[in-house]
Amino acid sequence: MDIDERVLRLLSTACPRPIELARLTPELMLRQDLGIDSIALVTVIFQFEQEFNINLLELEADFSGIETVGDVLAKAREIVKAGAEARPA
Question: How confident is the model at residue 84 (pLDDT cuts 50, 70, 90)?
Answer without folding.
Answer: confident
